[in-house]
């Protein structure tokens, strides 16, 4: 493996890591499908028990439509939810579940209905009990509010929804009508007073006409004296001032009552419908009459343009220049109106309630006082002109004055009547029921589809959780992919469990005893994987995580496969603590590496004196020798490097059998001198954490891990690791008898050299 590819194994990208983790978890789920099935059955049983025993809950719904009427410039816009941030629809939704509305609903319900869902012994909890079962929401981008109540009885649910809706409508009606009704009451009192005065004037006119014998007693007589004309002008001005004062006085009285009652002063602003009051209130907020007139004119143009747009769309379509120009003009006008509304709201929001109340009261009082002083002045001048006309013209002048008085009073009376008639007792806001609550016999809880979904999700969650816990507690590798993913190293070969053979020496090794077995082919696969590696593999160390994993067996059989292809191979028993390789080959008691390292002779002479040559053709063995008391210190000396350098120079392949990596430092010494390490493991024996610690130990010392060899794989676990069918290598083809093949010499290229190989 080259440096970049080794780094890829060591540090995988995060996306690949996540995908590997998911894949491994899914494999664990498939392996423990019985756990998943049991979890599903358990959750399904609980779901069925819940569905059978849970109390039935029924639901009733009603729908309300909230509309705004009138052209009050100070009224808030009731816009669809989601269209603007300052929409009032959420406020109306929250009002439905307010204590005021719910208390009104409780008064409309019988105790039998309340007893179904509420504790009758604790009336103080009734409002909160209704609120828990009541839900109000706005339909998206509409002015429609849905009211829903859930109860144990379907009839009670419908009756409670009806009571809540009716209480809400009563609350809205009383809130929006309060200020308007007060204004109507004041205007009606003024109207009645003017009616009485008008009746007195008409009687006086009739009596005076009879006294002077005038034939024309109509109020529209054109026979007037200049003094009478002057008196008429004063009278006309006096009537206009009186009309304006009466309207402002009514608005002032209503505002004072609202302040004394602690009502929201902005609600008064929204209900102030008279034109004069509107102009003053807008003036307080900084809006001139010209701006208000411009707004009304723009609204009129928008309506006219929309009618014209509908006609042009039918005639020309969307892409016509006139249609596009008209659409742009409508958009500009609507933007102007929205800006006007935003300015109005912004100025209202910037004024707190006390300051706004005092400002409006002060403005209205000042304006009423000014009108009152103006009225007194005009009254005095009118009386003086009237007296002069009376003195000049006598009874005729008096008759004309009476006519003027009657005309003024009639005009004032008619204006008040029209104003009272135009006032809408319902205010600007209208709430109406568009869907009545109905009794629904189908329970909404427990819901069979919802229970099924919860069973599926609960079964998956519980099953996966149990699988995850068992997978964490199960400290064994389960697949090749899991080994490669967690160790960040490739699996070079998978060796099936070999039959035990008695005795010692080369004859008991699998490659010699049964060269056609699947295990022998696995050793040849290991040789090929090393030959094709991107990294130098001329000197490799074979180690494991625990004693008894088969590292010595793998080292010996691998050395034989190299020798069989004509490579000069040196097999070194580097385990000076428990020399299993020396025992396996029957070389116990023979001098070996320990004597070489202690010898003072040149390294070549020392090795040649202890080397076991040609135990098979092209295979030499350097046994352990006598076990030293200090193997780590002995290997740490300079002669170990000299030994390995001599071996690499004289052999095509050097294989070193070393102690288990985590248990001794010998493997670290051999690994730093050699080209890399092969880690042998038994998935059914080695614990996952121990294997991972061994790989981390090698990585910490910067010793290249060439790959993993899975050893002694049982037939039951073979399908998870190798994929071999078992009969592919094990059973010879009886239809063809093996024939002798002449020996052919080939060559196998390695990164450093090319050596001859014999192929049988």
UniProtKB/TrEMBL annotation:
Keyword S-adenosyl-L-methionine attributed: no
Localization in the cell: Cell membrane
InterPro entries assigned: Bact_polysacc_biosynth/exp (IPR050445), LPS_length_determ_N (IPR003856), P-loop_NTPase (IPR027417), Wzc-like_C (IPR005702), YlxH/NBP35 (IPR033756)
Keyword field: ATP-binding, Cell membrane, Kinase, Membrane, Nucleotide-binding, Transferase, Transmembrane, Transmembrane helix
Documented EC number(s): 2.7.10.2
Record-annotated membrane-spanning stretches: 35-52, 451-470
Coiled coil: none
Name of the protein in question: Tyrosine-protein kinase EpsD
Basic and acidic residues bias: start-end ranges: 733-742
Residue span of region Disordered: 719-760
Any one annotated GO CC term: plasma membrane
EC class: transferase
Domain of life per record: Bacteria
A molecular function (GO) term: ATP binding
